[in-house]
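Reviewers of the previous submission asked for a worked example of the structure-prediction workflow described in the proposal, so we include one complete record here. The input consisted solely of the amino acid sequence. No template or homolog information was supplied to the procedure at any stage.
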Amino acid sequence: MAELSEVLGALMVSLVHARRMADEETAAVAEYYKDNPLLEGMSLPRVRVPQLTIDMPITIDGHASASSAELNSPAVIHKAVLDELKQHVSSEGLDATSMSKFQATFTADAKTALERVSKLEQQKQGQVSREAIIRVVDDALQSAMKKSGLNAELQNTQKTNLIQAIRQKVSSISIKKLSHPTSLTASAISSDVKEKATHESSVRLSITLREEGLEWSTSETESGSIRNRLQPE
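From that input alone, the workflow returned the following structure tokens.
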């Protein structure tokens, strides 16, 4: 038995690897064409599967109920953020004159914001939002930088690095337990389906998979760094 999501995922992953294997063979054929004077001017054969329909029987054997995510306490998040701030200030050598005022302001504002948003998230039905925690801490950080005058003292790169460091720490520490959606367990192995299948327990899946190609795009940022992104062909 396996989760139905694993069965469907395996089908999609198999199609991805089938495309990779076909492209690797196309690359090998391209080398062969290049070295053959009778073939070098011909178009290169490349096989694609823009759409694939699969019809298969499965049995649904059971299900597991969903579980909600659990936030860390505001105190845990707050301490982790302050520790990260202290470490970042030390490692980056940020010795601005308004640093002490900024840290005091941010400590108070972040604590208040975390307590408020944690109560709101716990009252929600369903999944809690990691992004909500990140945003209130980010707002407290920006506000403290402005109130203390640190904004004017730090360079743009220093501010960007500080904001990113705090966001990454909040993202990594805010969720204590991840949520799990409702899942179905299913059998797709032919022998298992034949053995278990009845009119009540077996179903047929008709799945249509469509292939979409991606390609790397390289661009240069204002700071001169190189950024690679995957974009549709």
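The chain is about 55% helix and 20% strand. We consider this example representative of the routine output the project will generate in years two and three.
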